[in-house]
């Protein structure tokens, strides 16, 4: 049974998009004090918690073109967040490593991100929060292939915890 709504502004697609946009906007405002964009934060999460180190693999996980990841990493390297190293097994591969600077602020930025999520969840009970997260994961699973970002991100970050 599909949830139908005559007002498309209150439809699943619009609400998901607007919620994601608002979260990103709030994170961008708060992350600016660290000099981190939301895209850069996602990279650090994958590098630190997910043990992802190949630049090409990061592009797959973020679902963006390798050239876009390369530019993002260029900016992060210039800002001192990451270092690139050649892969000893394959000179075509660039391995990424978070710097000491990134590791030093990771928990602090994670706490700031948690504050943004707490703002987003304000007025919801713990049961509603849990149901929302479970529902979004189900939607992600239902619409994803076995190896798309929803499943890979969960697997990759679970293995790094």
TrEMBL record:
Q: Which Gene3D superfamilies match?
A: Winged helix-like DNA-binding domain superfamily/Winged helix DNA-binding domain (1.10.10.10)
Signal peptide, first to last residue: none
Fetch the PROSITE patterns from UniProt. Answer: HTH_MARR_1, HTH_MARR_2
- Keyword hit for rRNA processing: no
Q: What are the protein's GO molecular function terms?
A: DNA binding; DNA-binding transcription factor activity
Entry annotated with the keyword Transcription regulation? yes
Q: Which residues form the HTH marR-type domain?
A: 9-141
GO biological process: one example? response to stress
* UniProt keyword terms in alphabetical order: DNA-binding, Transcription, Transcription regulation
Pfam families attached to this UniProt entry = MarR_2
Query: What is the recorded name of this protein?
Result: MarR family transcriptional regulator
Protein's organism: Oricola thermophila
């Amino acid at each position: 049974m599909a949830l139908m709504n005559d007002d498309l502004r209150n439809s699943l697609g619009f609400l998901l998009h607007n919620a994601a946009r608002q979260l990103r906007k709030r994170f961008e405002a708060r992350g600016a004090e660290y000099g981190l964009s939301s895209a850069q934060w996602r990279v650090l999460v994958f590098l630190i918690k997910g043990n992802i180190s190949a630049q090409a693999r990061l592009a797959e996980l973020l679902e963006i073109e390798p050239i876009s990841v390369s530019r993002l990493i260029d900016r992060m390297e210039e800002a001192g967040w990451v270092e690139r190293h050649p892969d000893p097994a394959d000179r075509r591969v660039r391995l990424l490593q978070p710097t000491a600077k990134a590791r030093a602020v990771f928990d602090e930025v994670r706490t700031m991100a948690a504050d943004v999520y707490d703002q987003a969840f304000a007025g919801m009970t713990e049961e509603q929060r849990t149901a929302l997260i479970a529902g979004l994961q189900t939607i992600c699973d239902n619409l994803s292939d076995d190896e798309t970002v929803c499943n890979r991100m969960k697997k990759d970050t679970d293995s790094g915890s």
